[in-house]
Design goal:
mainly alpha, 11 helices, 70% helix, two-stranded parallel sheet
């Protein structure tokens, strides 16, 4: 469900539907407008805010219902995740099936979800004041927390699925995987954040060629005298360039990791995981290029975000597997 809500959130952002609901009603907001009078009232409230006044003058009620649908679906699925967590949690807790460590981790997961809801509203609120766009910093925080929730859920699931008597590898193989996965994880985290900055600044609508940007490998705004470190997180062209660079570095890092792992005679599961990670990252790189050159169509952009989630989940699964690998006797 976290995977689904991230996909729906991506569609909501790409269809510019995120500011269609201008109130945050965590409990009563699950009921949409049901009558024409209620729809007219909801639409009238939306027209008081900058998005309508600056970008969507003349929008019809039928058009408003379309963008309202995606934001409404995003919020409802997010709330359903809370119920899907709470009802089984209470049942297993009352029936004595939760150990103290497992209960603590589960509650930490729930706390992350609650924080995500608050950050999501703060993000929306940033686009309801004087400009019809949300803060790209808050969007990055929203996506980063979502990825953390997804990764944490995968980790907990693997904890519950682990079987005793796992495989063993040499100390060298384990060391190679640990260092490689650490480096890949760092690049992956940065790439997710810069991907969100690209989305928030709509930087994917610029320089729709690859690998050159305006005829060069570096955009003009990154050359002296315009060069400034703050531009790496604020200037759309610079943010897109960083995203390209990190994507390339990540692909190279995964290629190097895979080659090194194969040479150390890993266990069968690690070999499969390395091949799957390499295939996913390569596919993601291609998706990123296609999304750029075709000027961010919704289908490709959503698939790009979904593949990023799959990569995060696979990386977490491999790290979890590594933590339970024994070291074979020399």
């Amino acid at each position: 469900m976290t995977f689904v809500v991230l996909v729906v959130g991506g569609i909501t952002r790409l269809t510019q539907s995120g500011l269609s609901m201008v109130d945050w009603q965590p409990l009563v907001g699950v009921v949409p407008p049901l009558t024409e009078a209620h729809w007219a009232e909801t639409f009238d409230r939306y027209r008081r805010f900058p998005e309508y006044q600056q970008l969507r003058q003349g929008m019809t009620l039928a058009e408003f219902k379309v963008i309202f649908f995606w934001e409404y679906l995003h919020r409802v699925v997010a709330r359903l995740i809370g119920l899907v967590f709470l009802i089984p949690f209470v049942f297993f807790w009352l029936s004595g099936h939760l150990t103290r460590p497992l209960a603590s981790r589960a509650l930490a997961l729930f706390a992350l979800g609650a924080m995500q809801g608050a950050v999501g509203w703060l993000m929306v609120a940033s686009g309801l004041v004087d400009r019809p766009s949300v803060s790209h910093y808050r969007l990055a925080a929203h996506l980063a927390i979502a990825m953390a929730i997804f990764g944490f859920a995968v980790w907990l699931a693997r904890d519950l699925a682990i079987e005793p008597g796992g495989a063993a590898v040499t100390a060298r193989a384990r060391r190679v995987m640990a260092r490689g996965l650490g480096a890949v994880g760092a690049f992956l985290a940065l790439q997710v954040v810069w991907g969100a900055l690209v989305a928030g600044l709509k930087a994917g609508l610029l320089f729709n060629t690859f690998p050159l940007m305006a005829g060069g490998l570096v955009p003009p705004t990154l050359l002296p005298p315009d060069l400034a470190l703050v531009s790496l997180v604020q200037d759309p062209a610079a943010v897109q360039w960083v995203h390209r660079l990190l994507g390339t570095v990540l692909l190279v890092a995964v290629c190097v990791l895979s080659v090194r792992v194969w040479r150390t005679e890993p266990d069968p599961a690690s070999r499969r995981l390395s091949m799957a990670l390499l295939a996913l990252v390569a596919a993601q790189y291609l998706l990123g290029v296609l999304t750029l050159v075709y000027v961010v169509p919704v289908s490709l952009a959503v698939l790009h975000q979904a593949t990023a989630m799959a990569i995060v989940g696979l990386w977490v699964a491999w790290v979890h597997h590594l933590c339970h690998l024994a070291v074979a006797p020399a």
